[in-house]
């Protein structure tokens, strides 16, 4: 698969799902065909209005057998906000029983259908869904906040899961504030032994957006920060200034 982008939480409630969906929306605005995979192992956390008629649970038998019918897949995905969505599990109790190659099996028939596959991989490395997403994605982003708990959980994820599997990715500091009581960006980079990070600023109305079932993309500073993340793997086309000058002359 050419462009499979995964977002993973260093801890729970750090905003991984909202960022994943916002990135999908940004790619749609740039004219890309996008599949958003709700693979966190949780139900009802997405910022989308889906019918609820289908879920990953419908495909579990095929995943376990090692083959999923393409028609079944296309019947399961739904269109929302200009992108296609593979809905999350409904039964969170059985989420841990999905095998660690779930998305490799699921997404293989759809490889040529989309230009980008964006995966919300959740934060629980005990789930086969999360491990499958980690192994599948070419570009990985790990989301944390400035809270000490989130940073320490991410460091444990690095030590116990990412390092043994040889997996790396970019760091996103979400809900970022210039508050002296919180870790600064430079301090977080030192703690996480990271060279760089993307900062997505705190937006006051995050709780309201969650209740409304939408992302914060309508807020300029949030949208701009998400666009910088997207440009990591989808650079903006440079304007041909020489051609413009020539035409002017």
Structure in words:
This protein is an alpha/beta fold. 38% of the residues lie in helices and 16% in strands. The protein has ten helices and eight strands. Strands 3-4-2-5-1-6-7-8 form an eight-stranded mixed beta sheet, sandwiched between helices. Strand 7, helix 7 (185-192) and strand 8 form a beta-alpha-beta unit. Helix 1 crosses helix 9 (220-230). Mean pLDDT is 88; it is low at 239-249.
C-alpha-based Rg, rounded? 19 Å
Strand order of the largest sheet: 3-4-2-5-1-6-7-8
Order of helices and strands: EHEHHEEHEHEHEHEHHH
List the total number of helices: 10
Low-confidence region ranges: 239-249
The percentage helix is: 25-40%
Strand count:
8
Strand content: 15-25%
Biggest pleated sheet: 8 strands, mixed
* Average pLDDT taken over every residue: 88
Our measurement of the CA-to-CA distance between the termini, rounded to an integer number of angstroms, reads 45 Å
The general outline is: globular
Helix/strand-derived category reads alpha/beta
Task: Sum up the structure in keywords.
single chain, 249 residues, alpha/beta, eight-stranded mixed β-sheet, 8 strands, 38% helix, globular
């Amino acid at each position: 698969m050419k462009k499979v982008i995964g977002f993973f939480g260093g801890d729970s409630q750090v905003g991984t799902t909202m960022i994943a969906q916002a990135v999908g929306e940004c790619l749609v605005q740039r004219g890309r065909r996008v599949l958003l995979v709700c693979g966190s192992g949780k139900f009802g956390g997405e910022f989308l209005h889906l019918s609820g008629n289908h879920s990953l649970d419908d495909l579990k038998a095929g995943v376990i057998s090692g083959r999923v019918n393409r028609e079944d897949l296309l019947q399961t995905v739904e269109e929302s906000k200009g992108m296609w969505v593979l809905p999350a599990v409904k039964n969170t109790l059985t989420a841990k029983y999905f095998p660690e190659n779930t998305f490799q099996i699921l997404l293989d028939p759809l490889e040529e259908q989309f230009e980008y596959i964006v995966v919300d991989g959740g934060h629980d490395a005990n789930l086969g869904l999360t491990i499958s997403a980690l192994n599948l994605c070419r570009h990985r982003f790990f989301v944390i906040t400035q809270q000490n708990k989130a940073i320490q959980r991410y460091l444990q994820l690095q030590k116990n899961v990412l390092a043994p599997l040889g997996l790396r990715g970019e760091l996103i500091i979400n809900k970022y504030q210039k508050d002296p009581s919180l870790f600064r960006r430079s301090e977080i980079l030192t703690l996480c032994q990271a060279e760089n990070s993307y900062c997505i600023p705190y937006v006051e109305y995050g709780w309201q957006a969650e209740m409304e079932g939408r992302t914060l993309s309508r807020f300029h500073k949030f949208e701009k920060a998400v666009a910088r993340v997207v440009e990591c793997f989808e650079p903006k086309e440079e304007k041909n200034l020489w051609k413009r000058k020539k035409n002017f002359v």
